[in-house]
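It would be a great kindness if you could assist me with a short task in structural biology. A protein sequence and the structure tokens that stand for its backbone fold form the material at issue. I should value your view on which stretches of the chain appear to form regular backbone elements. The record follows directly beneath this note.
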Amino acid sequence: MKKKRPLKHIQDSYGIRPGARDFPMMCVLSFVYVCNARCPNCPYTNSDIRRTYKDALFMDPPLFCKIADESGPFKAWLRLSGGGEPMLHPQAVPLIEYAKRAGARVGLITNGSRFTQANSRRLLAARVDMIEFSVDAADPQTYARVRPGLDWKRLVRSVRLMVRLRDSLKAPTKVIASAVNQVGVDISAVAAFWSPLVDEFQKRKYLTWGINDPSRSADPEPYLPPDQLVPCPFLFERLNIDSRGKVMMCGLDIAARTDMGNVRERSIREIWHGERFSRLRRLHLEGRGREIELCRDCPDWKYRSWKHNYWKIVKTAEKKRRRRAGLAGPLAAEGVVSE
């Protein structure tokens, strides 16, 4: 048996990623703050954050379209994630279609509960770049425990439907499945079940966001050596925007305690190149990240990786999608990121 090479998480030097010099490679959007599940590993389940967004449970179309319009010329990713299930947004499909027409790349993270043949076809026709199904289980019993409120059979049916339609329509969309490596879940069994059904399976670290119980992690081994204060890659590639348009400094801040500016008032590019982000990057590059209040006690910094990341998943999934479709030659499809 061929021995796997150890994963690489650090590099020789650090700085803003080549693909983010002009504009962030990714805007992570808290597109909705409602959900139809009560997953015990979700920080929104374990906090009152959603209640504080009663005035903005859904990102409004003008705000979303502004973000898409600014992201499109740079082919930046809009990652629909954040506070709940994105497909519960009453205008999810037309807004995603708009983002693709604007030239943005779209990565949708979903629990798979809201897909129909009709909306699946529309998403694939829009050439959504990647659809990630959060699965977290390999059997209905485990699924009922880790994804209460959702239906196992519907999930499996939705994934199979999406892949089948994708293949028949010859759409470039990558379809992946992901699972959190948490206590009570056999992650090897989850990988074995889902890997044959999708383009790629992603095993996720259990994160706390400063809210969840860290003892629930089934793999607490860090990616970045905590004592070396390796810069956090998030500051050098992406930013997070909530449903009010507020930009937070990183993905840890799901409660929006930090304020880097508001995209209703300033452009994303202006915020990205502004003094606030520049100062944070300088501190991280100088090994002084712990002088930043949010970073000082960050429980998830050590699980960020410069190599084993979203961009790696995109490339691997695209290679497998192309093999599945019988395509040859170098990667040249939409949505493949080159750093």
Remarks:
- The beta strands are 26-30, 77-81, 105-110, 130-134, 174-180, 200-204, 238-241, 247-248.
- The chain has ten helices and eight strands.
- The longest helix spans residues 152-169.
